[in-house]
Every structure is written in C-alpha cells, then in structure tokens.
Amino acid sequence: MATLQDLENAIDRLLDHPFGGRQYQIIRRVEEKAYEAYIFGLCLRAVRELGVTPVLRGINGPPTPFVFRGAPGQIHSRARNYGYAQFSMNEHEFEIHAGVEFRGTSGMTHELDVCLMRAADARACRNPDSFDDPQAASLVAGWECKFYAGNLQKGLGRAFVGLVDDMGSNLRLCGLCSNSFHPQLRDYFRPQRRPHPHFCLTPLEPSNENIFVNLIKGELKKMTAS
C-alpha cells in the first residue's frame, strides 16, 4: 500500500513548483489530505500532457509555499494563502482546486475534494464585492478522494452519486478516487452517467494513473475543440 511518503514524493513531482522541491504545505499532514493533493497533482499532469502549462496561484499572493487546505473551505477564504492552478486552452479558461465548497442545484453546500471549474466563475466568487460559494453550473469535473487502510465502504458510493446528482448536468466528468477497492462499488458505478471508479489509484500503480489522466485529457480536448 502507498505510504504518506510515497504520496508526498508524488505531490512534489506532480506539482513541479517553479521554485523547486518541497514548495508545498498540507495543513493536515495525514494520508487522506495528502491523497487529495496527489489527485490535484494528477490533474496538473493531464494539463501539461496536453501541451499547456498550468500556473500555480495563491489567493493572497505567490504560492511559496503552495498551501493545500486541511478541511473543506470557501473559495474566497483568505485564512491562509490557499493554492489553486489556472490554465487556458483555445481561449477557454479553467482553474483546479482542492477542498472547495460548491452550492448544488438544491441550494445545499457540498465539498469536492478536487475539482476543475470555469475560471470566470471562480474569479467572480473571489471578488470582495460578492464573496460567494461557486454555483454547480461552474463545475466541469469533480472527484471524491478516499484513502483507506482497508476496503472502501459501500455507503460512499450512494453518497457520492447523490452529490453528483445535485451538481447538475454541467458536470462533464466525475469519479471516486481511492487507494482501495470494493467489488460492489465497482458494479454500482457501471451504469451510464455514474461516477468513474478510480480504484487502486496510487503512485505505485502507474497504469491506473494513466487511465485517470487520459480521461481528463480527453474531456478537455472535447470541451475546447475549436
């Protein structure tokens, strides 16, 4: 099983901070939060493999270090210099975030461990004149991230499907990412339009990393085709 050190080494490599190694901080240095940061890093890898350079940002200024949240938070929070990434493809602008809260179509607030959203909506929510949680319609992709010592719990699947349903029809790509596995959850996610099951997704399983990254690349290509 992947260790905290394995995850941290992968984060360092995937973040590819312009100032060099170990230029990041995870507010709660535990496997669960490091796993979210690792999935964020795989999203960066997908963007780079499309020939685009994502730019690392901090809400209060340069991301030195790049700060990952220790708990779900609002996109406009300035409690720390929380990090995110920006990139553009064919005049479409996006941001990648970890641990940000969104307002679902029901009005209920939900956290997405890692997400890809439209940059214009993110900027509007950070505007001091309108501080707000992003609406579900701003989402492009979202992932639930679970790092477990044992098998996953079946209830996670039902809960995440309910969350995805409340995010509306603009969500083009979603999945449950985990270092673990559950055969019934795999079957539960089989029907069309349910989240992708990204089981055994760790730095120790490069083939599973490739599957995850290629799904993101494919969706971004379709969205930004000129």
What does this structure look like?
By secondary structure, this protein is an alpha/beta fold. The chain has one domain (4-223): Restriction Endonuclease, CATH 3.40.91. It is built from 6 helices and 9 strands; from the N terminus they run αβαβββββαβαβαβα. The strands form 2 sheets. Strands 2-4-5-6-7-8-9 form a 7-stranded mixed beta sheet, sandwiched between helices. A two-stranded parallel ribbon has the order 1-3. The model has no long low-confidence stretch (mean pLDDT 95).
Structural category: alpha/beta
Specify the CATH architecture: 3-Layer(aba) Sandwich
> Quick one: CATH class?
Alpha Beta
> Helices and strands, in N-to-C order?
HEHEEEEEHEHEHEH
Our measurement of the CA-to-CA distance between the termini, rounded to an integer number of angstroms, reads: 42 Å
Compute the number of structural domains: 1
Gist of the model:
With 226 residues, this protein is an alpha/beta fold. 34% of the residues lie in helices and 25% in strands. The chain has 6 helices and 9 strands, in the order αβαβββββαβαβαβα.
Can you give keywords for this protein?
single chain; 226 residues; alpha/beta; Restriction Endonuclease; seven-stranded mixed β-sheet; two-stranded parallel ribbon; 6 helices
Fold topology:
Blueprint: H1 4-15, E1 24-26, H2 31-49, E2 55-58, E3 66-68, E4 83-89, E5 92-103, E6 109-118, H3 119-126, E7 139-146, H4 155-166, E8 173-178, H5 183-188, E9 196-198, H6 206-224
Parallel strand pairs: 1-3, 7-8, 8-9
Antiparallel strand pairs: 2-4, 4-5, 5-6, 6-7
Helix pairs in contact: 1-2, 2-6
